[in-house]
Design goal:
The chain is α/β, with parallel strands linked by helices. Among the domains are: about 5-85, 2-Layer Sandwich (Gyrase A, domain 2), CATH 3.30.1360.70; about 165-260, no CATH class; about 405-575, Isoleucyl-tRNA Synthetase, Domain 1 (Orthogonal Bundle), CATH 1.10.730. It contains 22 helices and 13 strands. The protein has helices spanning about 5-15, 40-50, 55-65, 90-100, 135-150, 165-175, 200-215, 215-230, 235-260, 270, 275-285, 325-340, 350-365, 400-415, 420, 425-445, 460, 470-485, 500-510, 510-520, 525-545, 555-575; strands spanning about 25-30, 40, 70-75, 80-85, 115-120, 150-155, 290, 295-300, 310-315, 340-345, 375, 380-385, 455. Strands 1-2-4-3 form a four-stranded antiparallel beta sheet. A four-stranded parallel beta sheet has the order 6-5-10-11, with helices on both faces. The protein has a three-stranded antiparallel beta sheet with strand order 7-8-9. Helix 13 links the parallel strand 10 and strand 11. Helix 12 (about 325-340) packs across helix 13 (about 350-365), helix 18 (about 470-485) crosses helix 21 (about 525-545) and helix 19 packs antiparallel against helix 21 (about 525-545). It is globular, with a radius of gyration of 29 Å. The relative contact order is 0.10. The mean pLDDT is about 95.
Amino acid sequence: MTITDTLTAIVSEAFEACGYDRSLGVVTLSDRLDLCQFQCNGAFGGAKLYHKAPAKIAGDVADKLSKNPLFEKAEVAMPGFLNLTLADDALASLADELQNGVRPLIEQVGGGKNVVVDYGGPNVAKPLHIGHLRPAIIGEAIKRLVAASGYHAIGDIHLGDWGLQIGLVIAELCSRHPDWACFADSFDPDKDAIPALTVELLQEIYPFASARSKEDAEFKAAAMKATFDLQNGKPGYLALWNEILRVSVADLKQNYDKLSVHFELWYGESDAEKYVGELLDTLKNQSLLHESNGAQIVDLAEDSDTAPMPPILIKKADGSSLYATTDLATIIQRQRDFQPDKIWYVVDKRQSLHFDQVFRCARKAGLVPASTDLQHLGFGTINGADGKPFKTRDGGVMQLSTLLETVTDAAMDKLKTSDYLNSLSEADKRAVAEKVGMAAIKFGDLINHRAKDYIFDMDKFLSFEGKTGTYLLYTVTRINSVLKKAGDISPAPLAVYSDVERELLLALLLTPEAFGKALAEQAPNLICENAYHIASIFSRFYHDHKIASEPDAAKKAARIALCRLTRQVLLAHLDILGIEAVDNM
């Protein structure tokens, strides 16, 4: 139960005790924290029900609440606002419940229900590039928040492993190595070997084949035929495809590991292929599928539509599948395997029409229960200083591995004056710099609402001031330093000795509200904002007060307890954001 839930229950009882409907007692955080901490506006609704002035109703309730030791003040602000401020002892006691785990930092609202988060979406045989950064880190943060909220969260990378890009690679390999056994009709998977491929070869061969297909119509036709033959089970192509998968997935995992991004499922479009027949049968049986110029489509338009809704294309005239086919088949697969309560897709916001079509078709066909929450959580683009999609200096798309190396180098340079870092071995120094760099780019991305575009600015992201991941890591290391200096002090109750301590305790106590809102809106930026808010208040507390050197034993113990709780809460924020803390910087 969040603090506003707790206060709502108390204020609702007070309304009821005064003869008013208890539903009027909803408490929210104050719009004017300079006047009070919380407020209740229920008196205005009560005025209509009971034909009384709002101020009279609010006054009755305030009189009742003023007898409760929980409140320092319960007073009326005209024309009928009920303003509430907690007593310092009550505030400290409630925050102690956070510290002791009695009050959860994150409300357990999931009840163990299954939530599939579809994010990542890389193509096999192609290197990850900067465009893969946002779905990876946004999806990971949302999945972690879902899991921390009591759901069974299932992250599915949804590999692009069954489309034309595979056909292009196969066709180019065939062009270069026509003598390989896998290209012969006589290929026997039990006897014939597949040559070992390398990441370097795949990274070279796909862009070459893609460019070639744009200039060579005959080669493009060969690639399309290779795709068709693969999808229809040609043994040699399947064996080569498995080798491509082996090499690609190992490389993908290595890059995602550096980002602390981990998927529960490494399913691809190929895994949904066996459900395509069932999809077609379902659509036919419900008279939804019909032919249009040789293709198979489903009409989706409804009379209530305010914008055009084009039909969804299920099969092309040549019999091949499309992204929509695969996505619908994947919904069948997920329903069969997990019966998910929610399926959320973290995909570029420019794909909104595609998902509108897929979701409507899925509901028309009854592929999921009506209660299943299907949502497209769209994200914007990463732009350069010119406001255009981020490019390398030569105008190309930067590979993700290159970006991560560049960020680590930048962090190393930023930390070159650190005595602590310079005391480490080169390997340990780079490990710290890598964590700082990852924190910088992750927070720099996640602080923006996912649907917005943003400017990639490495200097800004690595700053020790402002809303940056570097600032948060520095705050945690500062707390570590305080706790180390204080030595072995037994856990003590929290207490309020100053305005900034009161402000910090209130911010910590309101953290479950921030996590709850972030979950409801699928918005990791709210977690970033709350973490920065707490860190900035702690910075003022740190600068304004003695902590480890405080001569008063009771005050020192309470302040050390406040440091410990702040550290605990900040680490919880960082963990959900997928950011790993460092002990020292």
